[in-house]
Write a structure and sequence with these properties.
The protein has about 290 residues and is an alpha/beta fold. It has helices at about 5-10, 10-20, 45-55, 90-95, 115-120, 140-150, 155-170, 185-205, 235-245, 255-275; strands at about 35-40, 65, 80-85, 105-110, 125, 180-185, 205-210, 225-230, 250. The chain contains ten helices and nine strands. The chain is globular and about 55 Å long.
């Protein structure tokens, strides 16, 4: 079994572990109410965006997410949070080091003692969720589980839901589609971007992601009988009706988007095998982007 496959299947237990950690990690996380900037690259950017929408939406303070190279910390933020599995990504490290007091600096990483971890006073290390596969799955979802728990959400039912998804396996036979589209609203729009990235990294397939309400404003015209339109969470009824008028296959369960992302992980696994791809080592990718 590949590292990817093992890591995907470990997620429910890690979400429970992350949930428990959230109750004791308050000193490692930005306080509720603080104006917060969250940054990350790749998968971490999408998790940052999902957290930002959830945090502000639940009234815990104004929260923005962006890539470190945008470096938009010119507003009246009170704290910054960086997300980095490897803890070695150059853009993230440089961004954190550029943030001077009185800004409070926080980071969630997968490896202790790394440059990102050293750039903040009290890093939160999720080494139990670190991965061997280049393709990131469980670190991202465990980070989001912890952050959701820190906002007062009960993530334990989500872990149960993920176990049920894993027991069922991938919903489609491999090779049925060559075009994948992921749609979501709210924080699910960020996870739809992450779902598309997973499918794109692992399979090399034509993969897109959109805010669900924007899909009918042009992109739907590319849908064919070889298109799978995958909805994460709840979307407006008019979007669902419009997509069903196309030749595309529509998949929607209404489950929590983080749980649904696990199902995407499973589908990506079978699609990658069908295409003869090394799912642990996609072409041109590395565990971390380190600039000289």
């Amino acid at each position: 079994m590949s590292s990817y496959a093992q890591e995907v299947r470990s997620q429910p237990g890690l979400w429970r572990q992350a949930s428990a950690l959230a109750t004791t990690a308050t000193d490692h996380l930005p306080p509720h109410g603080a104006r917060l900037a969250v940054a990350g690259c790749g998968t971490s950017l999408f998790i940052a965006d999902a957290f930002a929408q959830l945090r502000e939406g639940r009234g815990h303070g104004e929260t923005d997410a962006f890539v470190p190279t945008a470096n938009r910390v010119t507003r009246a933020y009170e704290a910054v949070l960086a997300l980095s599995r490897s803890g070695t990504t150059t853009e993230v490290t440089s961004w954190l080091e550029a943030q001077a007091p009185p800004l409070d600096r926080y980071a969630i990483v997968g490896v202790a003692g790394t440059p990102v971890a050293r750039a903040v006073p009290n890093p939160l290390v999720l080494d139990f969720a670190d991965e061997r596969s280049i393709v990131q799955t469980r670190f991202a979802t465990s980070t989001l589980a912890l952050l959701r728990a820190s906002l007062g959400e009960d993530v334990l039912p989500l872990a149960d839901g993920a176990e049920a998804v894993l027991a069922k396996g991938a919903p489609f036979d491999a090779g049925r589609f060559d075009h994948f589209v992921f749609l979501g609203e709210g924080f699910a729009s960020a996870l739809s971007q992450e779902a598309a990235l997973k499918m794109r990294e692992t399979t090399g397939a034509w993969t897109e992601a959109y805010l669900a309400s924007e899909y009918r404003h042009g992109p739907v015209s590319a849908a064919t009988s070889r298109t799978l339109v995958w909805l994460l969470g709840q979307v407006p009824a008019h979007v669902l009706e419009h997509v069903r008028e196309s030749d595309a296959t529509v998949w929607t369960t209404g489950e929590d988007p983080m749980v649904e992302l696990v199902r995407v992980h499973l589908q990506a696994e079978v699609e990658a095998a069908h295409r003869g791809r090394d799912i642990d080592n996609p072409p041109l990718l590395s565990r971390s982007v380190i600039l000289s």
